[in-house]
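One chain given next:
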Amino acid sequence: MTTDLATRYARAEALLPHHVKDLVRTPRVTPHWIGGTETFWYRTTTAEGVRFVVVDAEAGTKRSAFDHERLARALGDVLGEEFDPAALPFLSVDLLHDGAVRVVAGKRRIEVSLDDYTATILGPAHPGETPSPDGRWAVGIRDHNLYLRDTATDEERRLTTDGVEAYDYATMTDSSAALVMQENLGFTMPPMVVWSPDSTRFVTHRLDQRSVGFMHLLRSAPPEGGFRPRPMTYRYAVVGDEDVATTEFLVFEAATGAVTPARCEPILAPLVPAIPYGQLWWSADGATVYFLSSDRGDHTVRLHELDPGTGEVTVLVEETSTSHILYGPQQQDTNIRVTSAGEPLWWSQRSGHAHLYRYGRDGSATTLTSGDWTVRHVVSIDEDARRVVFTGAGRAPGSDPYLQELYSVSLDGGELTAITSDGLDHDATPSPSGRFFVDNASRYDVETVSVLRDSTGAVVLELEQADASGLYAAGWSPPERVVVKAADGVTDLYCAIYKPHDFDPSATYPVVEEIYPGPQISTAPLRFPVSGGVLTGERNAAGFAALGFVVVAVDGRGSALRGKDFQDFGRRGLEGEFVGDHVAAIKQLGATRPWMDLDRVGIFGHSAGGYASTRCMLLAPDFYKVAVSSAGSHDNRPNHVWWAEKFFGSPDEFDFAAQSNPAHAAKLTGKLLLVHGEMDDNATPHLTMRLVDALIKANKDFDLLIVPNAEHRLMIGAAYWQRRRWDFFVRHLMGATPPAYQIAEIPVDPELLGA
C-alpha cells in the first residue's frame, strides 16, 4: 500500500460508525403504528434530506406525512428561529386523527394544524414521562414516587407516597440504569410502565434493591470542577451474592388511582426487570396481563397470567433445564405470546434447537416446528386463520444457519410454508393486530429492501430501497463470508474477512481480529451496515481495513444463534475454552490467503470482547502478538450476577477462578493496551484493575489508559481512545510510526440515546 498513513487515518475516520450512518440513505423502515389502526409513519433519509412518511396498510398506499417546508416555517414562526425542512428538529411525531401533528421542538410541545399549518405551543416537553396510547395521560416519577399528569390540563396527581431510595416505583435496577451516562448527558429514564390498550390502566413494578450490595466508583476530575474527587455509590449484585433485586407488580387505574397488587411472590430482577425487555404485556382486549419470571441462573422459567381486577396470578407454563433458559435467541428477545383464547405460544430450546410449541388451557403441548434448525422470531399471529408467521434460520439444506427467512405454520401444527427463500436476512415488525408487517430484508453484502406484507406474507407495498453509494464512495467494501472448522476439526464456524483498502494480492498485510465471544450475541455481521435487525458484535472493521489491516471476525463455539449445545460451550469449563477456535479459524483462512501475514496477528474487543482479546493474548501468546482490550470483564466474580450465573453457572458449579484473566497474567508476552472508563458502572474498572494488579505482580510490561468520567460505552474521550487504539496496532503490528492525527469529536447519537 502506497497511501501515506495520515491519509489512511482520514479514510478510517470517515468510516467510523457515526459517519457510516450518514453514508447510507433509507437504510431500513422502522414503523410506528398509529393507535389501534393499520396505519404507521416512519422516518427516512433521501436525497432531499430527512422525510416523514405515512403508510395506510389496508389501502396499500404511502404519502408524505406533511409538507415539510410548511411545517418548518410554522415551527419557525412560533419559536422565533429558522428550521431546515430537510433536517426538522425532532425524531418522532404524533399524528392526530383530526388533521394535526404534535412534535417536541425546543423543549416545548407544539401542535401544528395540517389544514393551514398554524402552530400552537401546548406547553413544556416532559421527556421523563411515559404517555398512554391515546395521549390522554402520562406517568412520571418524582422523589421515588409516581404521579399521573392529565395532558389536556397539565394537572398532576400523586399515585404513591411510600416510595423511598432503593424501594421505589417504575425504575431500572442501578446496575443496568446507565446512571453515569444519564449524569454525563443530562437525561433521565422514563418510568417503566405498560399501559393497557384502551389507556385506562397501567402495570408497573416496585423495585426492591434494599438488600443488594454496594458498588463504588470515583470521579477523579468531576465535570463541575473542584479539587476533590466525587464518589458514586450504587447497588450492584455480583456472583455468589445472597441478595439480588426483586420486583412486585401493581395495576393502577388512571381515572381513580386505585391500585391492585399482583398476589404472588416478588419476581427476581438480577439485572434488567421484566418490563423493559417486553416480558410483561397486556392481552389485546386489555382484560389480562401476562408476565415471565425465572429463578437464579434462569434454570426455571414460568409464564404467569395476572387478573388486573383482583391481582390473582396463575402459572400457565413452566419449563426447567440444567442449563440456562432463554426467551428468545438473544438476551433482549422475548418470543412468548398468548392467543386471544388464552393459549400460550412458547419458544423453547428444549430439543437442542429453538422451536415453537402451543399449550392448551389444560396444559397439553402441541409441537409446531422441529428439526436441526432454529426458530428466531415470532412475527405475528393470525388468529382467524390460526397461523403464526415467524423467522427461521438454517432450515433449507445448505443454507446459512444465521440468516433468517420468513415462514408460517398452523397453530395446530402441520406443514410449514416458506414465505421467502432469497438467502437474505429478514427482520420483521408487525402491526398491533398482526394483520400486516414491515419486512426489512438485508445481508452483509446486500443493501436493505423494505416492504409491507400482509399476514400471509404477500407483498402489499414496496416501501424503500437503501442507497449505499456514499458508503462505497468512501472506500467501504463488504466482507467475504467464509466457513472453517473449529478446533475440534468437526464443527463449522462462520467468519467474516475484510480486505484492506487498495488491496494488492501480491502483498502481505497484518491481521487484526475483532472479537466478541458471546454467549448472548454473535460477532460476524449478518446485515448491511445500519440496517438494524440482529445484534452482532463487529463494529470497527471498516476503519481498520482503511488503515491497511486485514480484519477478521469469527463466531466461535460459545456464541449465540447456533443452538443450545453450541452456545453452552463456555459453561462446560476448561473443556469449553474458546481461544482454540479463533486460532484454528484464522490459521485456516491464512492457509489459502497468502496475503494474510500470520506472523503479525493482533486482536481487539470491548466489554466481553475486552476480556476475550486479553484471554487470547494470554493463552495463545505465540499466535496473537498485539491486543487492545477496552472495558474488559476480566474476572467474572466481581461482575454482574445475572451475566455470570446465567451463562456459566453458580460458584459451586463453575470454576470462575480459572476463567479469570488475572490467573494467567504471567503468560503475557506480547504488546497489550488496556482501556477502561473510570466511571464504567456496567463492567466496572475494578475488573481491569484486578488484571493490572496481577500483571504488576508478574513483572509484565503493558500499557494502560483510564478515561476520566467515561462510562461503559466510553462516550467520553471516544475520539481520543479510538485514535490510541489505531496507533497501538500501527506501531506494534504494522511496524510503522503513527501520524500526528486527531479524530474529530464524536457526537452523541440521539437515536441511540433514545433507544
Observations:
- The mean pLDDT is 95.
- The chain is about 15% helix and 35% strand.
